[in-house]
Structures are given as C-alpha cells and as structure tokens.
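In this section we turn from sequence analysis to structure. A common task in structural bioinformatics is to predict how a protein folds when a small molecule is present, because the ligand can shape the pocket around it. The inputs are simple: the amino acid sequence and a SMILES string for the ligand, here pyridoxal-5'-phosphate. Study the lines below before reading on.
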Amino acid sequence: MAEPLVYLDGEFKPKSQAAINVFDHGFLYGDGLFEGIRAYNGRVFLCREHLDRFYDGANCLAIKLPLAKKEMREVLYESLKRNGLRDAYIRLIATRGVGDLGLSPLKCAGRGSIICIAASITLYPDEFYRTGMKIITSAVQRSHPECLNPRVKSLNYLSNILAKIEAINNGYEEAIMLNHRGEVAECTGDNLFIVKNGIVKTPPPSAVILEGCTRNCVIRVARKSRIEVREETLARFDVYTADELFLTGTAAELIPVVEADGRSIGSGKPGPVTLDLLAKFRRFIKAYRDPGV
Ligand SMILES: *Cc1c(COP(=O)(O)O)cnc(C)c1O
C-alpha cells in the first residue's frame, strides 16, 4: 500500500518525508495548537466549529495563521481525497514556526507551519460502548485559566498526559481532572456529562474545560429532543451520585461510564438517557451536511 500523504505548508508529502525543523517552536516549546476532527462518509464533521475553535485558539496565542478559514477547510478535504479516505480522524496542527533557541516568538520566521494528517480511525473497543468504561480522578489538575487557558487546544498537553499516565498506571483508560477550585472539569481528552433525575448536566466553560465540539453538538441534539441540559458546576459528589455518566469527544464520540473512583454509577450499566443520546447522536452524524465556513 502507498504511504499516507501528509499536508505540510502547501505540499502533500509521504509520511516518511513529512518532517518539521527541530528549531520550530512547536517542537522546542509546545508553541502551537491542534485540532482533532472526524470525517464521516466524506464529510468533515462539525468542520466550521472546529475551524472556529482553531482560529480562536491561534488568536489567543497570537499566532497568525497563513491560510483563511476557507483555504484551511480545503486542506482538510484535500487530505481526505489524497488519502482515499471517507471515514477518518484528521489532525490539524499549527506551529509558531522556526526560531532560535530563545523563547521569543519574534525570532520565528514570520509564519508557522500548517500540518494536516488524515488517518483511519482508531476507536475504543466496541465493548466499552455496550458495557461502559471505568475511570478514576487524577491528582493532576487542569491548569489555572490565567496560566495556559485549557480552552486553547495547545500543543502543550503535559497536564493531560500526566493524568493519563496516572490512569493507565492504575489500570484505567481515562481520568477525571478537577480545576484549580477542585470542581469537576473534564477528562484528559473528553468532556464529562452526568444524568440526574432525567436532567443532563455538564460543567460550563468557566469550569476550565476545553469546550468540545462534540459536547456542544450533544447538548444541541439533546435539547432538540426536549431533554433538559444544564451547564452547571459539578463536584465529585455529583459524579458519584449520578444516575448515569458519559464522556464526549471527537475520537470517543459518546461513551458511557459505569464506574468512577470505585463507585458504581447508577445501575452499573450504561443508562437509558445515555443510550438514547448515543443513538440520536449517531443519527445526527448520518444526516450531517457540512455547511461550509
Ligand atoms: C479535544 C478535547 C476534548 C474534546 O473536544 P472535541 O471537540 O469534542 O473533540 C475534550 N477535552 C480535552 C482536554 C480535549 O483536548
């Protein structure tokens, strides 16, 4: 099989030749940002939402992206086309660019690199969707919003990685991360929802979360079918005493959780609201048309 083709600054290069300069500040300092996007049946899912977040994040980091949103969208579709993919996971990356060894972005050569990798999807095992996942709370907190605001999907994911390591070391796949106030924020790469007395609840952006495109989509899908959704501060108490618990993210889609910190959630099986929302979300994906940017 031919090598996958990676978009790098205007060219498509075979995977083995798609390389970044070691003086790029994206590599030296994690100075850059990324997006994880899905394509279903040849359509880039929630394309506009992902690009809006990408450009907002770049703006926050004072990185000037060399392409307009429309052109960036073309890169996503071209990456699918060149790799003959209709269902894919797309990683879009922007770096600060090549500089010297100092921190200053002023030394970086004007424009950073844009990288786009389209890969076939790796999923959690199907079993997780039927029987639910088990998670723990990590001791690693989300960074304070006045340090690096987690609303930026930056190339510095070390807090999340440390939390993930903690989960794995304890035999789990995902971990809940609390914010600097000790409130529930989200998981290492997924947003968190609970269901209590038929009401769906998830922490608001002010709880220091990455505001997931999947999260926002699931909220819309739920509200459309008259399920009440509240963005509300949650404590671990709320998680432990929830009737149902689930996570959302581009890669995971919507995944039930049946145990948190050794406490069985609800019946200990994926709950009816979760399964209903999962079915509705999958229907939404099937019917999705990319409206453009
Ligand atoms: C990417 C990410 C999510 C999920 O966002 P989606 O847009 O739904 O993929 C949630 N939390 C963190 C920390 C993330 O990096």
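Residues 36, 153, 160, 186, 189-191, 210, 212-215, 248-250 surround pyridoxal-5'-phosphate (CB under 6 Å). As an exercise, try to locate the residues that line the pyridoxal-5'-phosphate site and compare them with your own expectations.
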